[in-house]
Amino acid sequence: MAPPRRKNLFRLAPPPPMTIYVRRGFLRLLTDEFAALKVKRAALVEDKVEAHSQGDLRENFGFKAAKDAIRAVDRKMDDLDRFYRRNTFTEVDPAAWLTKPTDFVQLGHIIRIEKEDGDTKRKHRFTFLVATYGETATDPESDIECLPHNSPLAAALLGLTVGQPTPVPLPAGPAVLTVLSIRNPTQAELDRLLAAIKPPEIEDEE
């Protein structure tokens, strides 16, 4: 019996399906990104055919380059397709975040939290906007950071109420989280924090 290939030994398990909240227009952008990759692939195939017609493939660097580029585009298309098919996407309008109830932490709230490290007992305080998928901006005027709702920290915070110390396991180690305040953002804060929607950055699962 042949041993498993090294590639398979160290392959990470695919992430479980989840509901991903995105801003309006994200799915259109995802479709446009896939279409652009198809156009790019078609052009690369033409380059490969042209290079193939130039003779000895063993010394044909143009042919090898086009072949490698096609493989890279194919991987990205496969990654995008898996990302879309594996998950459920819900588009939301950030305008609704301006008037949400603030009884407990929800998508769209600005929250101040205290994080106590489980090992060192050191305490840190942060202010976050619990945002949609892929948001990473920081407001330079208020130091509010976007915290994507699907991050481990946001997953632990969603649903918590003010003043409720909660032990949670985090990738960096166990911690105790306490929500100090919950409020709605202002329109100016959203304007500074929510940049133009970009295509998703998906790690290669191979």
Overview of the structural elements:
This protein is α/β, with parallel strands linked by helices and 206 residues long. It has two domains: 18-92, Helix Hairpins (Orthogonal Bundle), CATH 1.10.287.180; 94-193, Chitinase A, domain 3, CATH 3.10.50.30. The protein contains five helices and seven strands. A five-stranded mixed β-sheet has the order 5-4-3-7-6. A hairpin with a 5-residue loop joins strand 3 and strand 4 (123-131). Helix 2 packs antiparallel against helix 3. The protein starts with 5 loop residues before the first helix and ends in a 13-residue tail after the last helix. The model has no long low-confidence stretch (mean pLDDT 88).
Q: Quick gist of this model?
A:
The chain is built from five helices and seven strands, in the order αβααββββαββα. The protein has 206 residues and is α/β, with parallel strands linked by helices.
